[in-house]
Specification:
A: about 950 residues, mainly alpha, two-stranded antiparallel sheet, 41 helices, elongated, disordered C terminus, B: Helix Hairpins
């Protein structure tokens, strides 16, 4: 038997796991996916029911896993009575929705995606209700926004679904961002994100100066999610979703998340004027406005959407009234609303599924055609209207009792009972309209299709939900009482108010209000007949105030207009302004602290000026400036000059006690130069551009002056900072750690190499992986390489050389090359084994003396490149089998396996072992497992470098073919 | 000596930044090379400049930091040199492919409209 804690974790994990599995199933296996999704929902429900004893009477289950405790980020699950109630609603109604969707979804729909999203949504929703950490709650909150976006946009081939999904995401996710900021502020006030700590700290939060901003931000999150005025407009647009989604999102889940959060945080944030006014006003406006708009909808789902908005307004209003009895009534109405609204959505879906329309103007007299659906829908709608003996009546009575009670001596309090009765009257009217419009009247005349027989199980979820409505409505104390009690205890603690769950409370004001609402609603429906049957879309008075259109206007202003301005100033179409911006910000960021704190040279006396090094640097600086000056028109010269600067850097490294760096720099310099030389051939000729560039407009000159200024500032700044740092004594760094342990623990005397292959071996592993990835990317990019039209023809020199070769006699063009490079080619060929030997030598001594895998690998690749230069691509590849991709793979595997080898001996990844065994003849040799790792580095570097270079070299052969029918010149 | 190296770093960085802001891709690639020289030297300089004390210790001993140059910036720079090579290679190929696709070697993939 699993413990309660692990069962709780399982409830949350199951839907996500199921979502993954279902998502990968073939999309035409309707039954399989539905069964799987149903089984997962059922398992969640069963576990939740089994956990009830652990949460009854105000107890709670907690699971906490520390993640980043110093930041207050823990993974905490917490289930009390209130969370339990929601878990049951989410999984229970989820189960019914899955069953319903099995019959509702058409065989053409890709249902694997549908059920995967639905399960993902269920998991996210469970994550919200079970979170014991506020940051975690926000995470799941945004996850519901994302997954509801996917669900609403499920039929993404229709524009309505896309627009509805986008609007829902924009509104709820921006609300989520506000919530996030609010939660961070609350965490700052309390000093913890833990929900229990936050709930205990209500007094501290309310008295804090940041209380109002935090409250407003959190409420923005909750009110957008629960579609409260003025953010209600996304909900009707979300009706473009498949009906099972609407039934799920707008009854038990998505929109309930907002009211859930308000109830959850009420003990910490409530009991204030600000709460009363913000929440109460939003709730009241939404309650009345939603009910008013619902009366005039022509679409069944649209009517239900606005009635959902209105009922959520009612719940919000109850929460806003700031009294414990209000909270209990709110929780009770959340339960009741979930049951009757889910069943009504499903009934609307059945009508749509059977008749092909949801338009009330076209529907009529369906009672005879579908008596079962009609009967169930009538009961559910009666519950929505608040007819006695149904659950909607009970919570509405509690609401009326709350509305007439005294809260504050304000005008709000005085008008509240009248507005409540008015909105209740509206709700009777729209419920009547739903029933009368769809089921009564003459037989339907212009249905898109005649109702086929209903799949027998399609009405089963509706029947279950409606029987729950009836049972709770008739025997509230037995059926819902204990659960409501434990949920109220979860929120309010031990001090729960006295309330009575009974059908009959005697003749009192709430009953009178109910009677007035019923009678008034029926009369209003009769009075509105003419207006409604005229077939006008929308309501009188408010038709012009279309919040959806306002939203669209704002979005266009934000995205298009602001976007255009943003593109002009910082767009990605032009690189140079962006780079200027980045450099400007970097300069400002560097200058800011300098201006604040000032800068001066350090206390150390600079070491003596060495004339030789000074001279070297005069050359180096000249090379750098000349390269900068020449790079536009004389690329070759610029390349050579850059190489000169690189050599000066290399000399500096050698001079200043860094032999390893000098070696690596030298070899990289060689390889880079060869690489760029290979690339030069594909760049455009510059002659014509030189001419065009003579006309320098003032604008160009100004731009250059600005760039020169930026470059000068950066140069002087970097030089000054470097000088200031280098004349200060070095702080106590980690260096002594490495120097002291290099031999005793790493088994090598070259500290730099020991750091690379042993102490920081993991970094090196990452680095060689990057190198391999880059090489493969280069290779992949060049496979599809198409040169620019003006670069396709052979270079002038090659053409001339081939012409001369052809004139000299019947020879292959390659012979000309062989002639011109005869002696150098021979030398290069002979050098191959020599350089190979040097590479092996550098590799073997690397652990103790300058050298190592990187240097040796680069050396080895130079040996290969020389062969390509000497003999040409074809000649080399006819004689040497080079498989650089395999070298890369082998190198990476070798390095990783060496690291894994440490596991076999019970050490962490990449722990190195060193010893110095004595071999006969050779003597004592250093042997560390790090040398295997270094071998991996070596092999990978060879593979990557050779792959890059020959991929580029191959272009010379390949791209000649389309233009020249005869064998292409052999040129690497 | 510090002054010479510092000025050298400054010249390399300044030349590199100038080229980085130029419109032709080849200029940018040369500029990035020069900047990476400057940055590598700068990081290397954080370990302070000393001659004749490479971080290679006597076998069988516990090393003493006073007798050796700081190995940590060196290890960092060694990695940086190799990665700079990889980015140069990648950038070169991207610029060649971009030139093949767009027909121009301007950094924006199209010639500037004016001038």
């Amino acid at each position: 038997m699993m413990s309660d804690e692990s069962l709780l974790a399982l409830v949350l994990a199951l839907p996500f796991a199921g979502s993954l599995v279902v998502g990968f199933l073939p999309s035409n296996r309707h039954n399989l996916e539905a069964w799987l999704a149903g089984a997962i929902a059922l398992a969640g429900l069963a576990i939740a029911l089994a956990l009830y004893p652990a949460v009854a009477d105000g107890k709670a289950i907690r699971v906490a896993v520390e993640w980043l405790p110093t930041l207050g980020l823990d993974f905490t699950l917490r289930m009390d009575g209130f969370a339990w109630l929601f878990t049951v609603l989410v999984t229970g109604i989820g189960l019914l929705v899955v069953l319903y969707a099995r019959y509702y979804m058409s065989p053409d729909d890709p249902v694997a995606r549908f059920f995967a999203f639905l399960l993902g949504f269920m998991g996210a929703m469970l994550g919200i209700v079970l979170s014991g950490n506020l940051i975690q709650l926000v995470f799941f909150w945004e996850l519901t926004s994302l997954s509801s976006f996917l669900l609403i946009g499920y039929w993404h081939h229709t524009a309505k679904a896309r627009d509805g999904a986008r609007m829902a995401l924009t509104v709820t996710a921006s609300g989520g961002l506000c919530l996030f900021v609010g939660v961070v502020i609350v965490g700052h006030i309390v000093g913890s994100y833990d929900l229990d700590r936050v709930l205990e700290s209500g007094a501290a939060i309310r008295s804090h100066a940041l209380y109002v901003p935090a409250l407003v931000l959190i409420l923005l999150g909750a009110l957008t999610k629960s579609a409260q005025f003025p953010f209600h407009f996304w909900l009707p647009q979300a009706m473009a979703a498949p009906t099972p989604v609407s039934a799920y999102l707008h009854s038990a889940t998505m929109v309930k998340a907002g009211v859930f959060l308000m109830v959850r945080l009420w003990p910490a944030l409530g009991y204030t004027e600000a709460w009363f006014w913000i929440v109460g006003t939003a709730g009241l406006c939404t309650f009345v406005l939603g009910a008013y708009l619902a009366m005039f909808q022509q679409d069944l789902k649209g009517l239900l959407a606005y009635s959902t908005i209105s009922h959520l307004g009612l719940i919000t209003l109850l929460i806003g009234l700031d009294s414990p009895t209000g909270i209990v009534a709110a929780i009770f109405h959340m339960m009741n609303h979930a049951t009757f609204k889910a069943s009504l959505f499903m009934a609307a879906g059945i009508i749509d599924h059977e008749t092909g329309t949801r338009d009330i103007r076209r529907l009529s007299g369906l009672l005879r055609l579908m008596p079962v659906t009609a009967g169930l829908a009538i009961l559910a709608a009666a519950s929505m209207a608040g007819v006695p003996l149904l659950n909607g009546f009970l919570s509405k009575e509690m609401f009326f009792a709350e509305a007439v009670a005294h809260h504050s001596s304000s005008a709000f309090d005085r008008v509240l009972p009248y507005l409540a009765a008015l909105a209740a009257m509206f709700s009777v009217t729209y419920s009547l309209r739903f029933i009368h419009g769809a089921f009564f009247g003459p037989p339907p005349a212009d249905l898109p299709r005649q109702p086929p027989p209903l799949p027998s199980w399609m009405a089963a979820p509706v029947a279950l939900l409606v029987s729950a409505c009836v049972l709770v409505g008739m025997f509230p104390a037995v059926t819902a009482g204990p659960f409501l009690d434990s949920a109220a205890r979860g929120v309010l603690g031990a001090h729960i108010p006295t309330y009575s769950l009974a059908v009959w409370h005697g003749f009192n004001v709430p009953l009178l209000m109910s009677v007035v609402a019923m009678a008034g609603g029926a009369l209003l429906y009769l009075a509105l007949q003419r207006y409604l049957s005229s077939g006008i879309e929308g309501s009188p008075l408010l038709r012009r105030l279309d919040s959806q259109r306002i939203f669209d206007r704002i979005m266009i202003a934000l995205t298009l207009r602001a976007g255009r301005i943003g593109l002009e100033t910082a767009g990605t179409r032009r690189l140079q302004p962006q780079l200027r911006l980045i450099l400007g910000v970097a300069c400002a960021a560097a200058l800011w602290p300098l201006l604040q704190l000032g800068m001066a040279a350090g206390p150390l006396a600079p070491s003596a000026l060495d004339p030789a090094l000074t001279l070297v640097w005069v050359v180096g600086a000249a090379c750098a400036i000349a390269a900068a000056y020449q790079a536009k028109y004389h690329r070759f010269a610029a390349l050579i000059l850059t190489g000169g600067a690189g050599l000066v850097v290399c000399v500096t490294f050698a001079w200043l006690s860094a032999p390893d760096l000098a070696l690596t720099q030298l070899l990289v310099e060689i390889v880079t130069t060869v690489l760029l030389l290979l690339g030069l051939r594909w760049l455009p000729k510059r002659e014509e551009m030189v001419e065009a560039d003579r006309h320098r407009t003032p604008r160009v000159l100004l731009r250059r002056a600005a760039d020169l200024a930026i470059a000068t500032v950066v140069g002087i700044g970097v030089a000054a900072i470097a000088y200031a740092v280098m004349t200060r004594p070095a702080p106590d760094s980690r260096a002594s750690f490495f120097v002291e342990r290099a031999y005793t623990e790493g088994g090598g005397t070259n500290v730099v190499n020991v750091i690379l292959v042993d102490f920081r071996g993991f970094d090196t592993l990452g680095e060689i992986a990057v190198l391999g990835v880059v090489a493969l990317t280069v290779y992949a990019l060049l496979r599809r390489f198409r040169p620019a039209p003006d670069s396709i023809v052979s270079p002038e020199q090659q053409v001339r050389q081939n012409a001369r070769a052809a004139a000299a006699g019947p020879r292959q063009p390659a012979d000309a090359l062989a002639d011109s490079l005869l002696v150098p080619a021979l030398v290069m060929r002979l050098l191959f084994p020599v350089i190979g030997m040097v590479a092996v030598y550098l590799f073997l001594r690397g652990h103790d003396l300058p050298g190592g895998g990187f240097v040796a690998g680069l050396t080895m690749s130079v040996a290969f490149i020389l062969q390509y230069m000497a003999g040409g691509t074809r000649w080399v590849e006819a004689r040497l089998i080079i498989l650089p991709v395999r070298w890369i793979g082998v190198g990476l595997l070798l390095a990783a396996l060496t690291g894994l080898g440490a596991w076999a001996f019970g050490y962490p990844f990449l722990t190195s072992h060193a010893s110095h065994p004595t071999l006969p003849v050779v003597g004592k040799v250093p042997l560390a497992s790090a040398i295997l790792f270094d071998l991996g580095v070596f092999v990978l570097v060879v593979g990557a470098t050779v792959l890059i270079l020959i991929a580029l070299a191959h272009q010379s052969i390949r791209t000649h073919r389309p233009t020249k029918p005869e064998p292409a010149p052999d040129h690497a | 000596m510090e002054l010479v190296v510092a000025i050298g770093i400054g010249v390399l960085a300044g030349s590199g930044v100038w080229l980085l802001l130029r419109p032709r891709t080849f200029q940018v690639i040369i500029g990035l090379s020069l900047i990476s020289y400057a940055v590598n030297l700068f990081i290397f300089g954080m370990g302070r400049l000393r001659t004749g004390v490479p971080p290679i210790i006597e076998p069988g001993t516990v090393g003493n930091i006073a007798l050796h140059d700081d190995p940590l910036p060196q290890a960092l720079v060694l990695t940086a040199i190799v990665i700079a090579f990889a980015t140069t290679a990648l950038f070169l190929v991207v610029l060649l492919a971009a030139r093949g696709l767009t027909g121009t070697d301007h950094v924006d993939g199209r010639e500037r409209d004016q001038t």
